[in-house]
Amino acid sequence: MLSDGFAPDASPDSATRTAFKSQLDALAEASPAKMAEALARMARPDAQWRVAHPMNEMAGNAAALAGVWWPLKTALPDLERRDLILVGGCYLGRRYFAAMGHYCGTMRGDWLGIPATGKTVTLRYGEVWQIDEAGQVVQANLLWDVLDLMRQAGLWPLAPSLGVEEPWQGPITADGVRLDPSDPVLGRDSLEQTLAMHKTLAEFDDRGRLSREALIAMPQREHWHPKMMWYGPAGIGTTRGLDGFVDGHQMPFRVAFHRPQGTFEEVTAERARHGAGHYIRIGDGPYSVTGGWPSVYAMHMGGGFCGMPPTGKPVFMRVMDFYLHHEGLIRENWVPLDMLDLFRQMGVDVMARALGPHGAKPPR
């Protein structure tokens, strides 16, 4: 099966889910004096932290407190966490929670050089937390949409997005926070459908068949709901329907980034040879999640993506995908992607460009 490695019967139980959700909320809302204590309750002292650029990788809670949580809490002192999806599962013997939503607060201070707005802002996130048998974090993967917060602060360093820039909507079914284990058969079916869709994407012949019409007609259409929503990161934006997805993201993305070609197995092997692939593949009822650090390997050989000319450089993309399976098909797909890290690999310091004197106004 495509979902080999996923163990649906080993999903975290209700007590573990509820406790972990409480710890996530407590960390976000802890006072400065209590943040270290909240972090210590949730994560092992030697936990590995992998966070969106420019924070990147660090070892241990002390480094995470200084490099991630203190700066965010200082900038947004009334910080709170709003999960839209919280699911759990076990892959390759590792237990995970995966969450998608928004941090919310009033931006009273600067953050990562982004000037304070004094207004309400939302920082959307995709997060994957690996936990040990005691329920403590051993690895955190936090893809926070820094570029979208720059947009809210009135800074925009890229070409206008092809999709719509807006806070991501929650699942249409309003059942994304799963505090009890789901039917394991349904969880496996959800993940199988996602990976079957991935197979169609991997095996499509970009070099010989790439066109708008071919992308819309190819077998991916068998898996997407007619009213599909695709929520991309800032710089790409949100699209609706398969044609909107192809026009707003898939076609320009495939023109720009030349990926390995071949069968699903050959493409997977070539990605792995370059250090790319999935570290998480889980299903939890009608939800599935995949992600890699990095997930995608490609060569930047074509123009047009976010207004960028081709650089000829190899690129690696930190990506997560959250899926809702509804009415037998993939209804919604939320895609955290570390855009600042991607542009760094293409030779562009997005933050320096935005924070300089010639930064453009954000798209409306």
From TrEMBL:
Gene3D superfamilies: 3.10.450.50
Alphabetized InterPro entries for the sequence: Cyclase_SnoaL-like, NTF2-like_dom_sf
A Pfam family it matches: SnoaL
GO biological process terms held by the UniProt record: polyketide metabolic process
Protein name: Polyketide cyclase
Protein source organism: Roseicyclus marinus
